[in-house]
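Reviewer 2 asked us to include a model.

Predict the structure of this chain.
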Amino acid sequence: MKHTSCKKSSPYAFTLIELLVVIAIIAILAAMLLPALAKAKSRAYAVNDINNVKQILLATVMYCNDNGDVLPVPGWSASGLPMDTWIVAANPPAWGTHTLGHFQTDYDWQVSWFTGITATEPASPVPPKGGQLYQFLKNPKLFLCPQDVVNAAYLQRAEIISSYVWDGAVVGYGAVTVPYKISKFKPTNIPMWENNEILGPGFSWNDFANYPIESGAPSFSQRHGKSSQVGRMDGSAGREQYANMLMWANDTTTPNDLWYKPGSANGH
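Predicted model (structure tokens):
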């Protein structure tokens, strides 16, 4: 005679309620960990930024050595960059707002003004030469923060090939057209920083140099935490506390590492 047996439920199985509780706990832990992971990723990007700025500043030092200590042109201009600058030759193309569909073409055209090599797109404009630092720094990818995203604000930029800007003090904020010699400045003066990405459209992205306070806001980024990525006149690069950057930027009384226009009583 055939007997049928009934399996008893394991005393160690989870109930539906227990499974739901476990899933809820995992979801809560994930929600708590994701911001921390995002911050860690951003800090990793900051290291990349520091390396980029370091390479640019080392190229600058080499440029100065070959040009009588005169610094490269920072790109301080509101009229389409009519002169060669550290990154692009004079009058680069696609100098205005951009569309997503034409962004890569516009980017390639601006890069060609850095390299001096015509872009591969049909009807690409022919660059007259490369930027001033090209002979010392060949990779245009070093000009971009890896955290940059081509969004609506990014498309409003005039210049789209660099996340970093120069301090306009290098040309006295427009007082002179030929940059000062590097010996005019202190080794700790900050000629370059990662630009403030949240400013979006407006004056802060019309060229490659800014005031420390631009468009009514600090022009240096704080996307990587409580510090900004900066380069100094001695060729070094690193992180500077955002509180210090803000203090210097808002100082209207004495020269400091952000406001250091030669011959000015307060550096402005």
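The chain has one domain: 45-249. Helices lie at 16-66, 103-115, 152-155, 242-249. We have added this to the supplementary material.
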